[in-house]
Structures are given as structure tokens and as C-alpha cells.
């Protein structure tokens, strides 16, 4: 075969060389024309999922008559991420404003040159518009470069089924339910009471979500210190979150479901689990999944421990942008307290701006499906209580390794000790390549 | 004896029929109901009455961001152009590889095969860079032109032509003064028709169902149908009914195409049946 | 049709000597004979050169560099490849890919052959059966994901429901290698059996009916006819499907991804992660584009090796039957 392959490859080489040259040394990538004769410029905004900016674009266009805004949205983050990578690698396609999910932002912080430094565009003046940790996540360690401005935060509550709680002889009022679990140890104790009642449902959906919430409350670092050294095995906070989660699995509290899988989705309707940590935007999903016949069966209480947040996004201006100044202005406008309030009203994206969180439009928000729960207050407390946590560029890879190990414990494939050893080894391997 | 053989044939066929068709039927059932059928146990097997409403939602403001109608048109244009081109060029090249003698034939055929062994997902970023140079980002030709030929098609037609085109037929036509191309048009292509029908069917399906590359090079306002379907979801939540309704609508053209191409195959069989 | 072609002497020279237009004609003839094969295959190579070749070379170039989401980190020689050789996750993915390949391809091609043979007979409701067997081809991946998610669900899945009736405990299909391989292989078999059956069917159509009639006269039954007439005569199609299944098997991606509900790591312990999934995980989830490119080229080489092995095996088989 090798004797056959060689001429084949030579043929290929000859045939393709010319085109490869063309492609490499061809015309200098003239990007889709963003300016026109009458001085109007078009800003392209790349987003995923739902940012709820449509009204804001109109306002911005009204106050900036020479600017048109074009949003290109991709519904799923999993579809958006490879595109983002392809735009950055090809040096074209990223438009003027890109949305960056937290996990991607922390990764990009390692080499922020692909984005415009927003501090060069007077972003320092809006610093107090953001929760401190949100601002710092997009700021380089030396404090000189700001990659993005925060949009929403995944502030957490604890959603629970009132009918299952009643069946297990637990209180159903959200204040009393919140009082059941000031800490995660109390949450475990409540879970044991629930399990003993034999309702047929599990106490929570999956261990991964619980673990993540505990972890984010364990001090200001998780898997990496601020010098980006891997401290997953030496940070007592990580071990503590792990041990508590493993204890809950051991007590049989986990439904061992795969998040976003069909059984998990159906579980909201059928009540196969009694509690689930829920960010603000998840309330809409629960309402859709559980359906109108279950209205009032779901409610939301405070999350155990001191506040919790997962995820959230940022807006940044790619260095590729032809109009960095206008794009930076747009980013500042969209992430302003008023912009965040509008996004919350449109799509339930919970603000990362303290002014927005305290605004009556947010703090006074109630959710009818959840027995008129005062969601604005519950999530607002959660977001403001949280101490800033440093994540580090390889946070997601290590997080995946630990999460997979927890799933293996749930599946009974590994003992907790084996799983821990494996998680540490996988994390090390992923980090020193 | 003969009777038992026949019932075994029908039994096997009926079993494969049920297994094959069930997901398609289930697709139909979900498209006619509302979201609550997902995850229900036992799953509902009877169609509901929501199909009209679901279709209205699919083309209405609910699903505006998915640009579904645009996606259907784009995919139609792409699939037809790619199919016509692939069938023609593959028949031509497949015939040449199978029946004509020329220097470097084996090496070139292996080169064709080798191009299929490159993992598809990997080509996306560099191919996108080529599109940037051509200025074809978010242009429909970006999902057409690179696919106008196919190594799969060349190989399939080569294998098919090897048996389906008798050498005597070619020699006879040459003696009648046919040029090679005339030979291809008048003698070879009729013999290749069933194979070409299969290739056309596969190519249409593959182009219609392609997802990764359209997602990479197009944007949401100018999608193909699969891209559009994926836009019916949000990051975390999938409206299954809407998606299944979209999938159902998107499947109809495939069934039409199947019948069109399928006739080639079926008529072949019928001839045989009549003759024997 | 072939019977109509009268037997004629081969390769007489059609061009009468002398006249000048005729010699032009004969030059044209020579070009037609020697040149047209290249013209016929040229479109493929031209378009491949334009759109296929650069990605190939570019990927090779990137595979020699450290390259992540933050951009090009410089030349590292074969560093990515040597890291790959010592990467247990990669070898695990290779094992999964080969295991799934065996579990999926062999039964798939055998079933396809049987189904094609059955569909190649004059039977009642032929069109319906043909359409039906091909239904998986037109079923979109979304429907496949939902249906198989339901079938192999741990708590409420239909398969576990049926197993429960005969007293087998519920299986967590994703949890172990064996069970996940069986589930994924069943998805692959489901999606591609009809596809291969159609290729066989088209090949069977090209077999002249009189060969069967002759075999019948010799007293050969249906099974015997299948073995001594059908199989040898559709050998090019068999080779085609074996090669294509090898390529498809080495690049298996969609079905295991759907089975894991989109989890590209293929289970908590990577029970069903294939090499293509590992490549995707490294390139597009961990953003290690250089490493992902090295994996891509390694897959390419592995596919070539698998292709050679299968070519050798099928040649051996050919010798054996003869």
C-alpha cells in the first residue's frame, strides 16, 4: 500500500499546491463591507441563546443615527463555541461585538490580545455598575486590560416540589423551607428526612449541580490559585465540596439523572425529584416542562450556604472589529444597569449590576407559576452574597474531570476514593500538556 | 416447503419494516401533539390534533428567529444543485475508472479513496478560511460549490460500472464511431441508471441533512434546514414539538425525492419480474 | 440489452488512410482515447484541489504547533504526537472505536445483504417494503436522539421495560462499556442497514436474469442461487460497502454523541467515546486546536491502516471462495 500511496500523495500535492498558494497569499481578507457611502456603519453583534436585546438595539440606533445594528444569534452555546473559535482562528467573521460565556472568557483571559481593551474606551467609568467579582473576571491580572463587560449572572435559588415536601411531612412555605437548610449539612439532613418518608422521588436531580453550588461557596479560589497553579488536590474547599456531595450520593439522595436529558426534562412534570438548584432563567424552563397542570406545585427558596452563582456571560469587542469605538459604546450601553434591567424583563437574564439588582423592576419581580415567589429578592440576595471566586483558564477542563468522576460514583462504577484519585490524575494530565 | 420459505421472507421483512419505520412514525406522532409527550411512559402512540397549530407556530412569530421557510428553500437549492452535479461527475469519473485504460489509474483511484479518510470535522476551520478569502461567508454557494464532486460518488459509480457496463457494449459502440463522451451518453449512462439513482438519493439526503458545515459558514438569517431546526432550541431548552414538526416538514421533500429516484430501481425490478 | 450487441472483431482501424481530414480525425481519435479519461476525472481533482487539499495541509501544519483558543503558540515539532502516544484517553477512544466497528459493521452488512436479497424478489407490496427499509435514512438525527434516548432510558426506557418482563434488572445503559457499546452499535445498525441494502439491491439489479434461470435449471435452490450467483456478481458492491463502513466506522461520531445526549466525552469514564469525538472534544471544547489536528491526522493514518487490513481480508476471502 505504501508504494501505492506515494504517487497518490504526490498527485495530490501537485494538484493542490497552486490552490493552497492562492488561499494563503490571496487577496487580503476584505471583510464584508461594514461602512457605506453615506457614513452609516453597521455593527454586527454575535450572540447565543437569548440575550433579550431587541428593544435596546432600537434605542441605540435612535440615539446614534449613523449606526445600524445586526444581531446574528445562534440558539445553542454548543453550536456557538466552535464558530467563535473558527472566527478567531481565521481572523474574520467575529463581527463587532461577541458574547462570551464565562467558561470561554476565563480561557481567553490567558491571552487577551484578540479583544479590544475596553479600558481604552473609558470603561473604567462604569466599573461601579458591576458586581466586583464580575468586573474582575474580565480584567487581566495586572489590571491593565479589560476584555469584556458583564451581562447576566446565573444567580441560584433552590426550586422544590411543594406536593412532594408535603407528602414527606416537610414544610412547604418557602421561608420555612429556606430555614430548613442554612447550610449544606442541613440540606443533607433534610434530604435524609425526605428519603426516609419514601415518597418514591429522589431528593435532588443530579450530584453535579449540587457539587458546583457547594464549590462556589468555598472561598475565593477553586481549582487554580491566582498564579494559575493547579491546586485541585490541595485546596481544602474542593475536597470539602466533594466529600459533602459524595455523602449525599451515599445517602441515596441523587436521582442520578443526566441534566438536559429526556428523563431529566420529564422529571419536572412527573415529580421524580423534589429539589433542584435553579438559576433565574431555569424557572421558565421548569414552567414549560412541568406544564400548566402543575402550576403552583413548584416553588423556589434560597439556596443553602452563602449565595451561589453559576455561569453568566460577557460582551467583548474583537480586535478584528473595524469600528472598535462604536462597538465599545454599544457594549457599555447594553451592559448598563438600564440595559440589564431590560434584558431581565425580556428574557429573565439576571443582572450582574448591583444598581439593576436593586431596581424595583428586578427586586420586585414575582413569578406567578411559582406561587408568586419573589424571585427578584431571592436571586438578588444570592448574587450579592457571593464572594468573588477566581476560576483560571483551564477551569472547565478540570471541572469536567471532577464532574465525570462524580457521575461515575453515582453510577456505582467507581468508589469515592477511586473516583477522587482519577479526577486528580485527569486534571493534572489536562493541565500539563 | 415453498410456502414456509415465503412466510419467512415476509416475517423478516415485516420485522424490519416495523423497526425501521417506528422512529419516523413517532416523529409524526410528536408533531401532532404538544410538548408533554416527551418522557411519558408508556409513550403515546396515537396522533393528536395539534399538527395544524404546530405548523402555524413553526412559520409564525414564535419561531421567527429560525427562518424556517428560508432554510427549506436554501436546502432545496443546495441539495438539487449538488445532487445533479455529483451524479453527473461521479458517473463520468466512475465510468472512466472502471472501464477506460489510462496511465496512473490505480494511483488516482487510491487518491480519491484517501480523500475520504480525512476526518470531516477537522476540515471546518481551514475550509472556512478559504471561504473568507473568497468572500463567501454566509453565502449559499459556500455550502454548494465545495460539494459539487464527491469521492464517495466516484467510488460508488466505479464499483457499479464495473459490473453493470459490459465491455462488449463499449467495444461495439466504439466500432459504431462513438467518441468516448458519446459512448458515455448513449451507451453507458442508461446502464448506470440504477446505480446513479442510488447515488442521487444518497447525495440529496446527505446534503439535506448536513449540519456542521452550514452551521460553520452560514448565519442564522440565511440558514439551511438543519441549521434552522437547531435554532428552534435555545441554549438549554428544546421545544420538542416544534422541532419535530419542523423535522416532519423537512422530511416530506426527502420522501418525494425518494419516490422519484426509487422509481428507477422499482421499474428495474418490475421488468425482471415480468420477464421471469 | 447486452444480448443484442453482435459479436464483432475488436480493434479494427476505422480511419481510412491518406486524406487530410481523416488524419485530423485520427489525431482527434487518439486524443479522445487517451485524453478523455483524464478529462472525465478532472472535475473531481480540480474541485478537491480547491476545497479539500488546503484543509488537509493546513491541519497537518497546525498539528505541529501549540495552538489553542488564544492563538498560535509556536512550533512544537512532533510534540502533539508524542503526547498523543502516551495519552490513555486517546487509546481508550481507539479501543472503543474498534470495538464499536466490529459490533456495528459485521451484523449490519450481513443484515443488509439478506434484506437486499429479499427485496430483489418479486414479492407483494414491494414498494412499501423498500420505502420502509430505507426509512432510517430519511429520519433526522433529532428524531433518532429522542427515540433512542427513550428506548435506552434507565428508569422508563422501553428496552429495560421489556427486560423487566423477563426478570432482568434495569440496566444503566451508559454506565458500562459493554452495555453502551451494544446500545450505540444498535443505533448504527439501525441507521445504516437500509443504506447498504440499497447499494446491494442496485448491484443485484445489474445481474442478468438468465443467470438465475440457468442456475434454476441446474436445480439450485434460492439459497444456493444467492451464494453462487448473487454474491460473486455483486462483489464490487461488497468491496465498496466494506471500505465505506471501515471509513465510517473509524470516523463514527454522530450516533455515540446522540446516545450520550450530546456529551462529547462519551460517558463518565469515556465508556463510548470514539476517536472522532475525542478529536472534537480537544479541538472545540478544550480549544486545543493543535492537539486536535494531531488527532485528526492520526485518525487518517489509522483509517488507512484499517482500510489496508480490510482490503487484505477481502482479497483473502475472494481467493477462498474461488
TrEMBL record, chain A:
InterPro entries: Bact_solute-bd_prot1, SBP, TAT_signal. It comes from Kribbella turkmenica. SUPFAM superfamilies: Periplasmic binding protein-like II. Keywords: Signal. The keyword Signal applies. PROSITE patterns: PROKAR_LIPOPROTEIN, TAT. PANTHER family: ARABINOSE-BINDING PROTEIN-RELATED, SUGAR BINDING SECRETED PROTEIN. This is Extracellular solute-binding protein. Residues 1-25 form the signal peptide.
Automatic annotation (TrEMBL), chain C:
PROSITE patterns: ABC_TM1. GO terms for cellular component: plasma membrane. Residues 13-22 have a biased composition (Low complexity). It is found in: Cell membrane. One of its GO terms (biological process) is transmembrane transport. Pfam families: BPD_transp_1. Its main location: membrane. Keywords: Cell membrane, Membrane, Transmembrane, Transmembrane helix, Transport. The chain crosses the membrane at residues 38-61, 93-119, 131-152, 181-203, 233-253, 289-313. Residues 1-22 are annotated as: Disordered. Residues 94-310 form the ABC transmembrane type-1 domain. It is a multi-pass membrane protein. Belongs to the binding-protein-dependent transport system permease family. This is Sugar ABC transporter permease. It comes from Kribbella turkmenica.
Amino acid at each position: 500500500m505504501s508504494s501505492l500511496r506515494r504517487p497518490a500523495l504526490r498527485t495530490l500535492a501537485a494538484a493542490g499546491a497552486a490552490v493552497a498558494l492562492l488561499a494563503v497569499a490571496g487577496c487580503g481578507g476584505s471583510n464584508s463591507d461594514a461602512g457605506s457611502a453615506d457614513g452609516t456603519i453597521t455593527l454586527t453583534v454575535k450572540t447565543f441563546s437569548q440575550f433579550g436585546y431587541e428593544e435596546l438595539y432600537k434605542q441605540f440606533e435612535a440615539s446614534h443615527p449613523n449606526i445600524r445594528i445586526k444581531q446574528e444569534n445562534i440558539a445553542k452555546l454548543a453550536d456557538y463555541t466552535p464558530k467563535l473559535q473558527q472566527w478567531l482562528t481565521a481572523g474574520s467573521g467575529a463581527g463587532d461585538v461577541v458574547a462570551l460565556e464565562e467558561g470561554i472568557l476565563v480561557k481567553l483571559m490567558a491571552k487577551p490580545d484578540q479583544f479590544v481593551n475596553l479600558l481604552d474606551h473609558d470603561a473604567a467609568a462604569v466599573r461601579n455598575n458591576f458586581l466586583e467579582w464580575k468586573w474582575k473576571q474580565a480584567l487581566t491580572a495586572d489590571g491593565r486590560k479589560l476584555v469584556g463587560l458583564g451581562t447576566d449572572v446565573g444567580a441560584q435559588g433552590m426550586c422544590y416540589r411543594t406536593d412532594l415536601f408535603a407528602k414527606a411531612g416537610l414544610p412547604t412555605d418557602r421561608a420555612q423551607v429556606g430555614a430548613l437548610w442554612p447550610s449544606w449539612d442541613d440540606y443533607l439532613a433534610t434530604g435524609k428526612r425526605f428519603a426516609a418518608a419514601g415518597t418514591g422521588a429522589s431528593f435532588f436531580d443530579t450530584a453535579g449541580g449540587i457539587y458546583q453550588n457547594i464549590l462556589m461557596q468555598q472561598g475565593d479560589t477553586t481549582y487554580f490559585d491566582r498564579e494559575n497553579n493547579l491546586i485541585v488536590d490541595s485546596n481544602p474547599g474542593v475536597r470539602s465540596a466533594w466529600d459533602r456531595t459524595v455523602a449525599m450520593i451515599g445517602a441515596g439522595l441523587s436521582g442520578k439523572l443526566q441534566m438536559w436529558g429526556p428523563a431529566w426534562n420529564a422529571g419536572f412534570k412527573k415529580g421524580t425529584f423534589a429539589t433542584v438548584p435553579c438559576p433565574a432563567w431555569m424557572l421558565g424552563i421548569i414552567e414549560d416542562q412541568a406544564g400548566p397542570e402543575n402550576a403552583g406545585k413548584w416553588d423556589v427558596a434560597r439556596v443553602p450556604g452563602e449565595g451561589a452563582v453559576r455561569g453568566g456571560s460577557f460582551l467583548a469587542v474583537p480586535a478584528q472589529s473595524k469600528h472598535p469605538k462604536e462597538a465599545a459604546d454599544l457594549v457599555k450601553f447594553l451592559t448598563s444597569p438600564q440595559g440589564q434591567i431590560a434584558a431581565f424583563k425580556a428574557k429573565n437574564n439576571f443582572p450582574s449590576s448591583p444598581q439593576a439588582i436593586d431596581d424595583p423592576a428586578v427586586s420586585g419581580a414575582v413569578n406567578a407559576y411559582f406561587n408568586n415567589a419573589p424571585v427578584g429578592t431571592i436571586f438578588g440576595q444570592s448574587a450579592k452574597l457571593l464572594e468573588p471566586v477566581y476560576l483560571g483558564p483551564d477551569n472547565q477542563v478540570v471541572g469536567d474531570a471532577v464532574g465525570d468522576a462524580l457521575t461515575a460514583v453515582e453510577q456505582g462504577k467507581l468508589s469515592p476514593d477511586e473516583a477522587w484519585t482519577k479526577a486528580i490524575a485527569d486534571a493534572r494530565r489536562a493541565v500539563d500538556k | 416447503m415453498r410456502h414456509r420459505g415465503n412466510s419467512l421472507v415476509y416475517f423478516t421483512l415485516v420485522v424490519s419494516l416495523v423497526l425501521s419505520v417506528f422512529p419516523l412514525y413517532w416523529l409524526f406522532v410528536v408533531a401532532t401533539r404538544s410538548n408533554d409527550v416527551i418522557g411519558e411512559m408508556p409513550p403515546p402512540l396515537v396522533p393528536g390534533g395539534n399538527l395544524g397549530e404546530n405548523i402555524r407556530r413553526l412559520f409564525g412569530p414564535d419561531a421567527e428567529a429560525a427562518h424556517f421557510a428560508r432554510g427549506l428553500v436554501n436546502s432545496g437549492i443546495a441539495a438539487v444543485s449538488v445532487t445533479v452535479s455529483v451524479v453527473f461527475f461521479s458517473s463520468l469519473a466512475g465510468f472512466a475508472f472502471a472501464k477506460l485504460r489510462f496511465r496512473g489509474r490505480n494511483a488516482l483511484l487510491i487518491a480519491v479513496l484517501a480523500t475520504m479518510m480525512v476526518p470531516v470535522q477537522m476540515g471546518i476551520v481551514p475550509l472556512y478560511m478559504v471561504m473568507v478569502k473568497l468572500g463567501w461567508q454566509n453565502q449559499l454557494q459556500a455550502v454548494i460549490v465545495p460539494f459539487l464532486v464527491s469521492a464517495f460518488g466516484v467510488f460508488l459509480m466505479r464499483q457499479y460500472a464495473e459490473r453493470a457496463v459490459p465491455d462488449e457494449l463499449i467495444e461495439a459502440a466504439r466500432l459504431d464511431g462513438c467518441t468516448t463522451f458519446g459512448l458515455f451518453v448513449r451507451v453507458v449512462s442508461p446502464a448506470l441508471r440504477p446505480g446513479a439513482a442510488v447515488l442521487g438519493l444518497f447525495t440529496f439526503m446527505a446534503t439535506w441533512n448536513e449540519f456542521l458545515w452550514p452551521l460553520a459558514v452560514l448565519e442564522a438569517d440565511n440558514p439551511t434546514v438543519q441549521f434552522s431546526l437547531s435554532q428552534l432550541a435555545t441554549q438549554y431548552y428544546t421545544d420538542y414539538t416544534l422541532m419535530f414538526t419542523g423535522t416532519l416538514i423537512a422530511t416530506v421533500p426527502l420522501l418525494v425525492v425518494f419516490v422519484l429516484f426509487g422509481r428507477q430501481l422499482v421499474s428495474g425490478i418490475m421488468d425482471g419480474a415480468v420477464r421471469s | 440489452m447486452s444480448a443484442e450487441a453482435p459479436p464483432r472483431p475488436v480493434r479494427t482501424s476505422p480511419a481510412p488512410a491518406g486524406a487530410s481530414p481523416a488524419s485530423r480525425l485520427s489525431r482527434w481519435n487518439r486524443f479522445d482515447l487517451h485524453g478523455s479519461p483524464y478529462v472525465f476525472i478532472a472535475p473531481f481533482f480540480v474541485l478537491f484541489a480547491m476545497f479539500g487539499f488546503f484543509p488537509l495541509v493546513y491541519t497537518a501544519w497546525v498539528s505541529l504547533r501549540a495552538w489553542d483558543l488564544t492563538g498560535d503558540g509556536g512550533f512544537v515539532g512532533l510534540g502533539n504526537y508524542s503526547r498523543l502516544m502516551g495519552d490513555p484517553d486517546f487509546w481508550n477512544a481507539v479501543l472503543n472505536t474498534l470495538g464499536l466497528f466490529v459490533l456495528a459493521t459485521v451484523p449490519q452488512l450481513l443484515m443488509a445483504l439478506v434484506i437486499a436479497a429479499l427485496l430483489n424478489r418479486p414479492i407483494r407490496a414491494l414498494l412499501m417494503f423498500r420505502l420502509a427499509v430505507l426509512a432510517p435514512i430519511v429520519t433526522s438525527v433529532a428524531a433518532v436522539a429522542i427515540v433512542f434516548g427513550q428506548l435506552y432510558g434507565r428508569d422508563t426506557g422501553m428496552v429495560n421495560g421489556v427486560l423487566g418482563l423477563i426478570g432482568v434488572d434495569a440496566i444503566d445503559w451508559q454506565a458500562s462499556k459493554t452495555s453502551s457499546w451494544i446500545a450505540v452499535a444498535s443505533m448504527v445498525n439501525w441507521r445504516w442497514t437500509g443504506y447498504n441494502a440499497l447499494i446491494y439491491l442496485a448491484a443485484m439489479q445489474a445481474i442478468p436474469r438468465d443467470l438465475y434461470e440457468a442456475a434454476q435449471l441446474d436445480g439450485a435452490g434460492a439459497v444456493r442461487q444467492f451464494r453462487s450467483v448473487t454474491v460473486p456478481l455483486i462483489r464490487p458492491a461488497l468491496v465498496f460497502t466494506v471500505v465505506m463502513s471501515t471509513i465510517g466506522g473509524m470516523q463514527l461520531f454522530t450516533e455515540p454523541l446522540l446516545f450520550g445526549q450530546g456529551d462529547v466525552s462519551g460517558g463518565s469514564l469515556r465508556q463510548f467515546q470514539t476517536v472522532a469525538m475525542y478529536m472534537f472534544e480537544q479541538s472545540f471544547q478544550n480549544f486545543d486546536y493543535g492537539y486536535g489536528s494531531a488527532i485528526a491526522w492520526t485518525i487518517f493514518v489509522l483509517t488507512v491502516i484499517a482500510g489496508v487490513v480490510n482490503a487484505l481480508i477481502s482479497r483473502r476471502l475472494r481467493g477462498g471462495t474461488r
